[in-house]
Specification:
The complex is a heterotrimer. Chain A has helices at 2-26, 29-33, 51-70, 93-106, 117-128, 159-176, 192-207, 226-235, 246-258, 277-282, 284-287, 302-313, 321-339, 344-352, and strands at 38-44, 82-88, 110-113, 133-136, 152-154, 183-189, 211-218, 239-243, 265-269, 291-294, 368-369, 372-373, 379-384, 387-392. By secondary structure, chain A is α/β, with parallel strands linked by helices. In chain A, α4 (93-106) packs parallel to α5 (117-128), α6 packs across α7 (192-207) and α13 packs across α14.
Chain lengths: 407, 319, 291
């Protein structure tokens, strides 16, 4: 599949190279300089509580823009280069709204990013006032796409899709390993993301033959996870399904390790730590075997490896923010290419009819229905041998699942 | 002298501000509206904390109630936004009255009062975050319906003018209070409760009136916030940020003065933009400045910008 | 929800152990209140500073966090003394309300300065030794928590001895009771204020060293402790050392058992409700300490 996508792109670039050379020889320089750059708003929280995620997102977007420009910019706009207008969402929806106003006044053609759900909700609505296309990079809450805003597109999967996939994958995983798991304890942070996820799990899991022994919410920040661990020890579930942010999950995983609580699996969903290399590096013992259903780049695409190399060189830990923003920027570039114009209606129409496949996510062709990319799906990951591997679905996997997990 | 000075200051200020939305970009208008929302919340804080001397760390309880009640009435009962606004303000006032009734009867003041108001706001934040009715952690999102009939204007300038009008209205109201019998009683309570009681002032009733009025104004800021940004969650509505900003703006502008909170809010937000512009993308650098300013204001300028202005004017008159 | 008795017992023990560290944080707060009659709103952020200091020491020099207790307590004592004597004291012009606002300003400034320096992410000290357990009967008790418990009790005892048996302690108590009179008797009130604030900060330094093995640090971490500490101080009676100790252990138990039966989210709600109720109905504290 990869080669099918890459080949035309390569040949087109090669073709363009020759024509550019021809242009350099034959045409006056003014003509080539005429293509005014297209401004693209990149909105990320690079200060405040979410600064780390914002930095990763910015890196992905920047890299994509560099690559697009190096390959000749937007051809249908006369090879116009993409000019990044960066905006700091400062980790809160209010600041994000202000920054959207600024991006609007700078005349951007579209905005990519947001990261956190509240930021995405507020920023996309602010952009809707100006009919300005907004591509959400991560923001998982489904309220983002159920508001009827025509300018808002989410490339990645939302909570509903993630939960459904997580459950489907869990069933498949369980069935193919002789059904070791039946009883479940849900642990979730009590904010937007954790509580929303737990609610969906509570309705979906019992329908599929699992028994939920208990749902344990905890606040962020939490001072202590011993209570949660104790309850898990008392309940003896086959499976623990946690959805928490980084600090709390690390605390829970280490406390469980300390208390020698070893369920058959820890199957987390959109977890802040399980797909984070820092956790794996700092606490390999607690991390090993943890599974996560999360955003992740397609490990088998060559462009993924290239991007990961660049991230390593920049000293950044590999995480989903990088390929997601990288892909979202390329998605917008593709839409601009097809729109052949910076006109907002046309850009939105081009995004709505997108069938973009040049991304590095495990999604297949892009198809938006009411702003949600229908091809988007999370994958299952597992920490194995101090690395994060894709274990499911098989089509994208680079390792076999180890379930039930034995240390 | 003192009153006239304040009035002149604020009239000039408002005249300048009213022109801004007509000529400025949306970016400037947005900055202005955000600063004015804080100004309004701070004006509310100033009635109780400044004139009445009861320093609250929990005005978020009123701001959040105003914001939540307007959004809930629109989302759950389908009310028109204009009808929900006064109810939101009333609800905020009611919460203020209820907290006041408990806390002032128990004779809590000073640091105790500050801490207990903070605790009330935190309880409301945790509840708003936990209950399904308030949208839980997802918060509440009003549908985007640009148009005057839904209290959502297509032009941001209209929002700014309404905010300016509200702030002006409260300015005049506050000025009226400082010259009224109620204002005199409130100042007497602030300066010395025992002496005020000896003069026949009903301490609890006076404080209750102040907190109710104070809460209503801060709730109005919350209502306006909800209509402007269309999205609130427990952290925005009941988080400590608004309690702190309302307090900071009042103290830095000039605690207990009529114009102080407005000048303080505009100065703080202007300074915030400036430090961010100068220091670039250093996290939280604006808040570091705010914190140090608070310390500096108390150490060197106990009556804030307005006080410093008055001293400057005074010295010029004498010269 | 029915739990076997062993689990409930373990939750209670856990709560008691955690509560001892809360008590240590609250001790510093109540001491400052008892003498200076002020509420130090910067207490939480000073704890955060201490935790970053231990984290830095342990990460970059590789020493044990327990070896850092004495030097760090000394450093924080000095820091607290200077802070009170040369910043908070002079800036507040002797007004209690001003001190509250100054410490609020300090906490905003320091928290965000830490955010600027360290960003928002959480850090742990390297290694797994913070998660060692000792089996006690059917229970698995965390070793660092047992050490923390013992150390907290020792600190409380030392503090009590200091107040009861030494000249400095007598001077502190004299200033706490009668500022003016003590001043007339030749006690330097400013000096004693500084010493008291320094002792409060030293308690935080010890608490930070005890917390870091099994906890993480980020610029906002102190906030999670400070409201609990306020509740404990109010519960135990403002200014009472034994009150703070009992209050800390009590709140630790309530939080742990409440968390077990009601969930941790509501457990935090419970702390605020206790705080409000005590202030409204028993402002002198539950344990009948001096008002």
């Amino acid at each position: 599949m990869t080669s099918r996508i890459m080949l035309p792109a390569m040949s087109r670039r090669a073709l363009l190279g020759t024509s550019a050379a021809a242009a350099a020889l034959g045409m006056p320089a003014i003509l080539r300089a005429q293509a005014a750059p297209v401004k693209l708003g990149i909105l990320q929280p690079i200060t405040g509580a979410l600064a780390q995620d914002g930095e990763l997102g910015r890196f992905g977007a920047t890299t994509a823009i560099e690559e697009i420009n190096a390959a000749g910019g937007i051809k249908s706009l006369g090879g116009a280069k993409i000019e990044m207008v960066f905006a700091d969402a400062r980790s809160n929806p209010e600041a994000a709204t202000q920054e959207v106003e600024r991006l609007q006044s700078e005349g951007v053609a579209a905005i990519v990013g947001g990261f956190a759900s509240p930021i995405c909700l507020a920023a996309s609505q602010a952009a809707a006032r100006y009919n300005l296309a907004y591509v959400v990079d991560v923001g998982v809450t489904d309220a983002i796409i159920t508001r009827g805003l025509t300018n808002t597109f989410r490339f990645a999967p939302g909570l509903a899709i993630v939960t459904k996939t997580a459950i489907d994958n869990l069933l498949a995983l369980n069935d193919s390993n002789g059904k070791p798991a039946r009883t479940v304890v849900l642990v979730h942070e009590d904010g937007l993301f954790g509580a929303g996820l737990a609610k969906l799990m509570q309705t979906e899991l019992p329908k599929n033959g699992f028994e939920i022994l208990e749902t344990i919410p905890h606040p962020t920040p939490s001072r202590d996870m011993s209570n949660v661990a104790l309850r898990i020890r008392a309940l003896k579930p086959d499976l623990v399904i946690p959805s928490s942010y980084y600090g709390e999950f690390v605390l829970l995983a280490r406390t469980m390790q300390q208390q020698r609580i070893r369920p058959k699996g820890i199957y987390s969903v959109l977890n802040g730590a399980a797909s984070n290399f820092r956790f794996v590096k700092e606490f390999p013992e607690a991390a090993n075997g943890v599974m996560d259903c999360n955003h992740w780049a397609d490990p088998r695409k060559p462009a993924t490896a290239e991007l990961r190399k660049k991230a390593d060189a920049a000293g950044l830990a590999w995480a989903y923010n990088i390929p997601l923003n990288y892909s979202c920027v390329k998605l917008v570039a593709d839409a601009l290419e097809r729109a052949g114009s910076k006109d907002r209606e046309k850009v939105i129409a081009a995004l709505a009819s997108s069938n973009f496949a040049g991304h590095i996510m495990p999604y297949g062709e892009t198809r938006f229905v009411n702003g949600q990319n229908q091809g988007a799906q999370p994958v299952n990951l597992q920490v194995q041998g101090n690395d994060i591997k894709v274990i499911f679905p098989v089509a994208f996997a680079d390792a076999k699942p180890r379930f039930p997990f034995k240390a | 002298m003192k009153g006239r000075d304040d009035l002149r200051l604020l009239l000039v200020l408002l005249a300048v501000l009213a022109v801004v939305p007509a000529v400025a970009s949306n970016l400037v208008i947005n900055f202005l509206v955000t600063a004015l929302i804080v100004a309004l919340a701070a004006q509310g804080w100033n009635i109780l904390g400044g004139i009445g001397g009861q320093i609250s760390f929990g005005h978020a309880a009123f701001f959040g109630t105003g914001a939540y009640v307007t959004e809930l009435l629109q989302l759950r009962l389908g009310w028109n936004a204009w009808a929900t606004a006064p109810i939101g303000i009333l609800a905020g006032a009611l919460v203020g009255w209820a907290i006041g009734a408990m806390v002032f009867r128990a004779r809590l003041r000073g640091s105790y009062f500050a801490l207990v108001t903070l605790a009330f706001a935190e309880v409301m934040r945790i509840l708003a975050n936990a209950l399904d009715f308030t949208g839980g952690a997802s918060g509440l999102l009003l549908k985007l319906q640009p148009g005057a009939e839904a209290f959502q204007f297509t032009s941001r300038a209209v929002f700014a003018w309404i905010a300016i009008a509200l702030v002006a209205l409260v300015l005049l109201g506050t000025r009226h209070i400082t010259r009224s019998r109620f204002g005199a009683q409130l100042v007497a309570v602030r300066e010395n409760e025992d002496a005020a009681r000896a003069l026949g002032v009903d301490i609890v009733a006076t404080k209750l009136r102040a907190i109710t009025l104070s809460a209503a104004i801060t709730a109005a800021a919350g209502v306006f916030y909800a209509q402007y940004f269309l999205y609130i969650d427990s952290q925005i509505g009941y988080g400590t940020w608004i309690s702190v900003e309302a307090l900071l703006a009042s103290i830095i502008g000039g605690v207990g003065t009529v114009a102080g909170p407005v000048i303080g809010a505009l100065a703080l937000h202007g300074l915030g933009e400036l430090t961010k512009g100068l220091a670039g993308q250093i996290t939280g650098i604006d808040l570091v400045t705010f914190g140090l300013l608070l310390v500096a204001a108390i150490a060197f300028a106990p009556s804030g910008i307005v006080g410093a202005w008055r001293r400057y004017r005074g010295s010029r008159h004498r010269a | 929800m029915n739990y076997p008795p062993a689990i409930i017992a373990e939750a209670a023990v856990n709560g008691l152990l955690t509560g001892s560290v809360y008590a240590l944080v609250a001790l510093g707060l109540t001491l400052v209140y008892g003498v200076l009659h002020i509420i130090n709103f910067a207490h939480g952020v000073l704890l955060t500073c201490a935790m970053f200091a231990v984290w830095g020491l342990v990460t970059f020099t590789g020493i044990s966090p327990y070896a850092a207790i004495l030097p760090l307590a000394a450093v924080f004592f000095g820091l607290g003394y200077l802070l009170q004597r040369y910043l908070i004291g002079p800036a507040s012009h002797g007004d209690d309300g001003n001190i509250l606002l100054i410490t609020l300003g300090l906490s905003i400034a320091i928290e965000n300065a830490l955010l600027a320096a360290f960003h928002g992410d959480t850090r742990n000290i390297p290694g797994d030794f913070g998660f060692e357990v000792a089996p006690v009967g059917p229970m698995m008790i965390s070793q660092p928590k047992m050490i923390a418990f013992a150390a907290s009790l020792i600190v409380a005892l030392l503090l009590w001895l200091l107040l009861a048996r030494t000249d400095t302690g007598r001077a502190i108590r004299a200033v706490a009771k009668e500022k003016l009179g003590a001043g007339l008797m030749g006690v330097s009130v400013g000096h004693i204020f500084g010493i008291t604030f320094g002792l409060g900060c030293a308690c935080l330094a010890v608490a930070a060293c005890l917390l870091i093995p099994s906890f993480y640090v980020n610029p906002r971490v102190g906030n999670a402790f400070v409201l609990v500490a306020f509740t404990i101080v109010v519960l135990g009676g403002m200014g009472s050392v034994p009150g703070a100790l009992c209050g800390g252990l009590f709140i630790g138990m309530v939080e742990s058992l409440g968390g077990l039966f009601l969930g941790d989210s509501l457990g935090q709600l419970g702390i605020f409700v206790i705080f409000i109720l005590v202030l409204l109905f028993r402002p002198a504290g539950l344990f009948g300490a001096r008002a």
